[in-house]
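Thread: Modeling a multi-component assembly for a lab meeting

Hi all, long-time lurker, first post. My supervisor asked me to bring a structural picture of a complex we are working on to next week's group meeting, and I have zero experience with this. I have the sequence lines for every component (672 residues in total). Could someone generate the structure of the whole assembly? Inputs are pasted exactly as I received them:
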Amino acid sequence: MAKLTFKTEICKGCGLCINVCPKNVLELSKDKLNSKGHHPIEAARPDDCIGCAFCATMCPDCVITVER
Amino acid sequence: MIVFQKPHALTDAPMHYCPGCTHGIVHRLVAEAIDALGIEGKTVGIAPVGCSVMAYNYFACDMIEAAHGRAPAVATGVKRSDPDGLVVFTYQGDGDLASIGMAETVHAAARNENITVIFINNAIYGMTGGQMAPTSLPGQVTQTSPYGRDVKACGYPVRVCEMLATLDGPEYLERVAVNNIKNIKAAGKAIRKAFQNQIDGKGFSLIEVISSCPTNWGMTPQKALEWIDEKMIPYYPLGVYKDRSAAKEENA
Amino acid sequence: MADKVLMKGNEAIAEAAIRAGCRHYFGYPITPQTEIAAYMAKRMPKIGGTFLQAESEIAAINMVYGAASAGKRAMTSSSSPGISLKGEGISYMAGSDLPGLIVNVQRGGPGLGGIQPSQSDYFQSTRGGGHGDYHLIVLAPASVQEMADMTVKAFDLADKYRMPVMLLADGTMGQMMEPVSLDLSIAEAPEKPWATTGTKLARPHNIVNSLSLVPEELEKLNNARYEKYEIVKQNEVMYEEYMMDDAEICVVAFGIAARVSKNAVVAARKNGVKVGLIRPITLWPFPADVIAKAADKAKRFISVELSMGQMIEDVRLAVNGKAPVELCYRVGGMIPTPEQVLEAIENGGAKS
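Re: Modeling a multi-component assembly
Sure thing. I ran the full set together rather than chain by chain. Output:
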């Protein structure tokens, strides 16, 4: 099973990771804000993650760590 | 098992780039190449003037901040100080490399200076707020071409890889993009090759990375990536423009 | 005494630089200093050094910036129009606290000017020459021997204070030949733990940088640099006094103008005129104190220059109204004759 962890403090909420995810796992948080005022990314459907790391590859800010 | 995390050659400093700016991706690819080749301890990076002016805070290797456009000259000074001991790279935008620093770029290439140049082409001056760059496309609206780049008044964009490929000097020239997973993987491979060439003493390698500037293009980050496919790549085709070692092998 | 060899001033600079441990020379051809580049082109490959003819003066100074960042003793040389181009890089070196040697073998200006000797880059050199608050240490040799000695001194000072040093000569000094002893006293370059030589994964990364976006921090950096400049002013002023003990008239001149003036002082003394010479060797820091002291006794000062009157401003500041300060000058590549200076000493008011 794959596991995603996020450094939500440095996420800028650009959403690029969302679009490259083949399993539609990710969403920007609707209720959380980080200290920079961004809605950070979170795994809305973590159980669907296959650990392909496309999200982390696309992320400009090294927010995502992927484990498998 | 961790399959993806921040490379060691990047510091923990949060990057100042705008949301969705692909500078961060290219920084990471450079750092991954440094990690993969095990050269962080002997690498010296040269930051430019432009959006990536503070790149010296993000790379964990020794860093130098150069004057606008002068990074290849500074890199030359560093590399010549210890040709066998140091790996030297510059990281420059289109204004820095293709406008004010054109002479330094061309002559470093002509000398086949044994350095690695990472060239970010996003067709705009980002740091100063979105002015026309030497690589801005015909018709592109910027702060200083508000009616679209009029080639009659301000000329045509510079295709750096094609131009440098006319020189005998450079070892390796490749244009890549970072607008999708496939292109990012190819860009990473090219950047690693550009460092490997230096380690092998082959000489000047330049990787032109077609990048996005959502803020100054006035688009969402996602739309900006699509604009690369629609507008940038047709004008700046991806591919290898020069690979002297490969050409030699073919002729052998 | 060591054997002397006959050398051109420009060659003496080059050889002395090599002996001082400089192995990295970056330059661009311009008259009247090109012999330095030619000498380096011959010698550097034989001793494992770097000679590189850059694409421009701008590139050359930035190559010095790079080599200096990596902890090496590096230098460039040029003449007036080329030094203007280097102004950007020199300012960055000052802002990044980098050592290095810049040689200016001056020629007449402004613009392309001429190729004959001049001292009209005095303002540019002593005030920094580029943008921002900074100084260079400026050394003004007056013989081929001093060209060699001051080159060595320049590298020592640059490393000691982590700042760029300028050797300010002129076309005459560069081209003339004199016997010179190359038995130079060479101090070892200090350790440079700040240099970008690779972390070896054994220390945090070094950053050579002049950018500082927080006003409070940039102000602090400027203040710290000027505290360092105060120490330079206290420790490093160099000058020569000649026949100043009882002087009622004081000639102030540097470089080639000082050599001419010395002849005029000797001639005037023969005529019974109590005149002496103060020759600044460091133009920055300027020997203001010694001139101020001389102003307690001297009734008149004459600044002899190959410019429209640049150093005279520093002389006036030092004299501080205690005595009149006159100018004796030639420009455009012309050099004052001893007769012209003698006329100025004896009758005053002599100009060109």
